[in-house]
Each structure stands twice: as C-alpha cells, then as structure tokens.
C-alpha cells in the first residue's frame, strides 16, 4: 500500500512538469494572437481611412502613428518630395511630447539639406543620403529604419520608424508591416492625384461643352430662304469643337441696314455661301474658326469681289495664323437669284461640284489661290458660273473624301462624285442629298465607327 502513494506523487510531479510548458505555450500563442489582432485592427483602420477620407492631409496624419504602433517603435516620420525636388518632413509621430519638438527640428534640418527629383538617383542611394543626415542630426541614440514610398514605380518619399531602444531590431515582420503602411500611403497619394486630374478633366469637359455650344450658335441655325433656290447644310465635328466652317451672309448691305430684307425673300438680295476648313481639329481649330467667321463677315461689309474678300481676309489673318502654325482653306461664293449667277473664289479648298441638270454631268468650280495664312501677299482669282434650272452645287470639306474604313481604305473623291451624281438623280431635295451622302460615308467607314475628321456639306439647288 505504501507504494501507491509514492507512485501517485511521482505522477503528480510529472504532470506538473508537463503542464508548465503547455501553459507557457498557450500564453505565448494568446499574446501573439493579441498582437496579430492589434495589427489587423490597425491596418483595417488604415484601410477604412483610405476609403473614407477625401482629404489627403488628414490621411497622411495617421501614417506615422500607424507605422509606429505596428512596429512597436518610439516614433515614425513621413517624408515626401516637393514639386521642386526638396524633401519635406510631412508628418511626425513621437510618443514623448517633450522630445517631439527636438526630434522634429532635427528631422527638418536633415531633410532641408537634400534636393533631388524623384528617380534622379538610385533608390538605395537617395535613401542612404537621408539616412546619413538623420543619423547626424538625431545622434547615435536613435535607431532609424525606413522604406521608400513608390507611386507607379516612382519614388515619392520615405516612411521611417524611429526607436531609442538599443535592443530594437528591424525584423522581417516589422519591415513587411511598414511596407504595407507605405504602400497604403502610395495608394492614397495616387488616388488624390487621380482625383485632381478628374476634377481638371471635368472642368475641361465643361469648358469644351461651352465652346461647342458657342460654336453651334455661331453656325447658321437655319438655311436662308432664297427665291428660286433651296439650300441645305450639315456640319458634324469629329470632336465636340471642330474646325469646319460654313455660313450664309446677306451681301446687300444698304438694304440690310435699312431692315428692308426679311428672311431673304427679296429677288434683288444676293447671298454669300461660304465653306472653310481650319487645319487640324479640336479646340485650337475651333477658336480660329470663330475668329475667321468674325473677320469674314467684316470683310463682306466692304462690298468687294469674291477674290478681293479672300485677299483682304488673308492679309488680316496672316499674322495670327502664322503664329498658330495653322492655315485655312476656304471657298467663298455669292449667288444672285435674279441672274442665277454664282460668283466665287477659292483659297485652296476642295472645289465644289456642279451638277448640270440638263446634261446630268458634273464639273468643278475652282480658281487659283493659296491657303489663307500661308503668304501675306497671296493673290486670288474670280470665277463665275451661270446656273440653270435644276442645277445643284455641293460644297464639302475633306472629312468626306478622307473618311477611312477599318481596312484603311478612304472614301476618296471618286466615290464622293459617284455618290453625289446618284443623289442628284434620285433625291428630291437638297436636304435629301445631304442625308444621303452622310449615310453613304457612314456606311463606308462602318456604322459603329467615328470619323477622325470634321465633315461639312452645303447644297445649293436652283429650282425649276
């Protein structure tokens, strides 16, 4: 019996010996679990802040605090580049408020001595330069460890953790955690820049829409009523603002001033029919087109011939066009309803096509003349066409003949002439001709494709 208690005592000692490491292991696991939960909570909070904060500066204020807590450091510092290449201490966290002022001053002095643009020196070299200055100004008692903040592979700053503990070690886990915080910082910086760019784009879109609306208002809202003739027109810019231009201008100035003209119903009222194309497209071409319109209408008031109007317009606009490195093609014509004579002059524009109803043939209306804005002393020629009943004249820009299909083939002038010929034979109005030709080109380039150039048509048809 005496052996049983002795045997029991040995078992208890053995159990005590076995249980102690288990308890210690459980405590270690629990501590690690608590630390893991703390780190997860901190990083989750950082992620929530990244999604929620609209102000970048508010988000950046959290970064050093998060970096210090996930690495058990005394403090953390965030440095970012300025646009001029200067390195700036953006945010600082330091647990001891009494020491914070001295730490900040030392870091500001260290960073102020460095100036270089992102990626101007290798990453390791730039980080080493800041490390050296920080060691010099903080002293040997402060250990520093840092990682670069990279936005689209471009170095934009550094995130450092700082510790006065001589036993502090820069473990692989701490490196990963600071890298996570630095990556979140990079995402926040990139998101802020994207938001700024988006706002700029929205402002530009608004300005473009205003420009497009102004341009739409400058183009004729409706075609004039001309005795003995019908006109139709359409302009389709490649972008919201285009460089194509067409206009109808009453040229009987004395009657115009006396308000004698109402909707162009007078037989003795002449009408200018104009089409032009500014080299290029988009806003620059649209601005020049707007200026061109004002200048031309001013020239028409002087009552010169078609060639004289183009010549004066060229002289007036030469300096502005030369400075902008852009030129203008233009075809200017005046139609007299009483005589059915079309007087015209061409400044290197696509010659309008004249469909002769009597013979059902097509000829071109053209004269010698250079681009507006190419030479201040350019000379232009006058031409005349005696239109007959049923004749049709079409003015167009090169957006039609240069229209390209997905294969790369262009609609070209031959196809345009053939299509115009068919339209004159089978369409019952100028508007139907305009619609037919626009549809024809759209079918050629593909119904789901957008033409890369502005397209404009004006059709003048003499009634029978």
Q: Any chance you could write out the topology, listing elements then pairs?
A:
Blueprint: H1 3-52, H2 56-70, E1 75-81, E2 87-94, H3 97-112, H4 123-138, E3 143-151, E4 154-163, H5 172-218, E5 229-236, E6 244-250, H6 253-257, E7 271-278, H7 283-300, H8 306-324, E8 328-336, E9 341-347, E10 353-356, E11 361-364, E12 383-386, E13 392-396, H9 398-401, H10 412-426, H11 430-445, E14 455-462
Antiparallel strand pairs: 1-2, 1-4, 3-4, 5-14, 6-7, 7-8, 8-9, 9-12, 10-11, 10-13, 13-14
Helix pairs in contact: 1-2, 1-5, 2-5, 3-4, 5-7, 7-8, 10-11
Verbal overview:
The chain is an alpha+beta fold. Helices cover about 50% and strands about 20% of the residues. It contains eleven helices and 14 strands. The protein has helices at about 5-50, 55-70, 95-110, 125-140, 170-220, 255, 285-300, 305-325, 400, 410-425, 430-445, and strands spanning about 75-80, 85-95, 145-150, 155-165, 230-235, 245-250, 270-280, 330-335, 340-345, 355, 360-365, 385, 390-395, 455-460. The strands form three sheets. The chain has a five-stranded antiparallel β-sheet. The chain has a five-stranded antiparallel β-sheet with strand order 6-7-8-9-12, covered by helices on one side. The chain has a four-stranded antiparallel β-sheet with strand order 2-1-4-3, with helices on both faces. Strand 10 (about 355) and strand 11 form a beta hairpin. The longest helix has about 50 residues, at about 5-50. The N and C termini lie far apart (about 140 Å).
């Amino acid at each position: 019996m005496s052996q049983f208690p002795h045997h029991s005592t040995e078992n208890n000692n053995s159990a005590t010996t076995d249980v102690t490491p288990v308890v210690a292991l459980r405590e270690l696991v629990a501590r690690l679990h608590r630390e893991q939960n703390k780190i997860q909570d901190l990083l989750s909070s950082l992620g929530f802040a990244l999604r929620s904060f609209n102000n970048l500066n508010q988000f950046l204020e959290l970064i050093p605090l998060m970096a210090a807590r996930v690495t058990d450091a005394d403090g953390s510092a965030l440095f970012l580049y300025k646009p001029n290449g200067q390195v700036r201490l953006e945010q600082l966290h330091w647990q001891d408020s009494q020491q914070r002022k001295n730490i900040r001053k030392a870091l500001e002095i260290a960073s102020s001595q460095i100036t270089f643009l992102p990626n101007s020196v290798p990453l390791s070299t730039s980080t080493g330069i800041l490390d050296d200055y920080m060691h010099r100004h903080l002293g040997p008692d402060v250990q520093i460890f840092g990682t670069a903040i990279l936005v689209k592979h471009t170095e934009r700053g550094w995130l450092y953790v700082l510790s006065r503990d001589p036993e502090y070690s820069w473990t692989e886990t701490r490196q990963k955690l600071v890298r996570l915080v630095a990556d979140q910082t990079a995402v926040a910086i990139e998101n802020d820049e994207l938001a700024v760019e988006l706002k700029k784009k929205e402002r530009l879109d608004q300005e473009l829409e205003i420009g497009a609306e102004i341009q739409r208002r400058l183009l004729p809202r409706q075609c004039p009523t001309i005795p003995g003739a019908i006109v139709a027109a359409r302009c389709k810019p490649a972008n919201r603002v285009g460089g194509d231009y067409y206009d109808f201008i009453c040229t009987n100035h004395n009657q115009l001033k006396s308000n004698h003209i109402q909707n162009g119903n007078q037989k003795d009222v002449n009408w200018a029919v104009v089409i032009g194309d500014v080299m290029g497209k988009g806003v620059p071409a649209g601005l020049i087109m707007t200026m061109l319109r004002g200048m031309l209408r001013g020239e028409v008031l002087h009552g010169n011939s078609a060639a004289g109007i183009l010549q004066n317009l060229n002289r007036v606009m030469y300096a502005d066009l030369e400075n902008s490195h852009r030129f203008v093609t233009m075809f200017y014509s005046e139609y007299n309803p009483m005589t059915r004579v079309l007087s015209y002059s061409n400044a290197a524009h696509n010659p309008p096509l004249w469909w002769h109803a009597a013979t059902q043939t097509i000829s071109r209306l053209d004269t010698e003349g250079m681009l507006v804005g190419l030479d201040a002393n350019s000379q232009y020629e006058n031409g005349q066409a005696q239109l007959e009943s049923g004749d049709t004249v079409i003015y167009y820009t090169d957006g039609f003949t240069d229209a390209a299909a997905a294969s790369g083939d262009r609609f070209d002038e031959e196809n345009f002439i053939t299509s115009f010929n068919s339209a004159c034979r089978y369409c019952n109005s100028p508007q139907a001709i305009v619609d037919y030709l626009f549809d024809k080109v759209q079918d050629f380039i593909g119904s789901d494709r957008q033409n890369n150039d502005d397209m404009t048509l004006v059709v003048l048809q003499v009634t029978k």
